[in-house]
Design brief:
This protein is of the alpha/beta class and 290 residues long. It has 11 helices and 8 strands. Helix 4 (146-153) links the parallel strand 7 and strand 8. Helix 2 runs parallel beside helix 3, helix 5 (163-189) crosses helix 7 (204-217) and helix 5 (163-189) crosses helix 9 (234-253). This is Prephenate dehydrogenase dimerization domain-containing protein.
Length: 290
Amino acid sequence: MTNDTVVVLGGGGLVGTLMCSVLKQQGLHTRVVDCRAGEHEDERHQIDVSNPPRDSAQLFSNAIAVVFALPERVAVDAIPWVLQAVSMDVMFVPTCSVQGPFYAALRAHSAQQPCIGINPMFSPRLSPQGRTVAICRDDQGAAETFIETALIAAGMKIRRMSPASHDELMALCQALPHAAIIGFGMALAKSTLDLALIEEVMPPPMRTMLALLSRLLVNPAEVYWDIQLQNHQASQQREALLQGMECLIRTVSDEDYPLFKEDLQTVARALGERLDSGALDCQQIFSQLN
């Protein structure tokens, strides 16, 4: 046994695997706990964290931190089990896409347990170099933790924020675009047109939307379900998206071009300086697709 062990619950998943890689680069020992069988980890235990055995306390021996690389609800439910096996100085590290519920549940059980939330703002299948990781902390001015040091050493950029501000940001940056993409997919699925014909003639915007939809569909559905379900602020963004579509429907139905133009100008003003750089990004995306 070693005194620099980090237990990674759900370490066999994409985010868990990423965390194991980052931690091992810093010379830390990772102990993977996952319901799936696997190979090549330093130490692995095939256990369902939703139904752990009674004699599982030894899994956390010599642990300095426990990473909860689990779906939000599973992570929250696992808190009491982990608390009864660790000391008050062991750091909890949730990687949930929604951080508020985990923090609230942890504080209800243990007000002083150290906790630092991590949400990689990119797919773990991509290179982490230069990517941003959201760091959730109660005290944003506290000293840098070994987790943050490990992320920076692996080439990532960190951005600290409170759990509440994180969830508000994720509702806008994740839940809203995902909802728009899923809605697009549902409309596409209702079409009777031949997809081969669509692919042959589709312009760059359609191709881009189809690429976004395909990217979403090849990943586990539970990832996007948690983003929509667990973030209570996501409902506000879905409602705003619905209102935008209803406004568009009314405007077109009334053949009100001046209002249509005014609505677009309102959006453009909201983007501000980001408008020109966003247009350049789109041009580069279209060039790459073509």
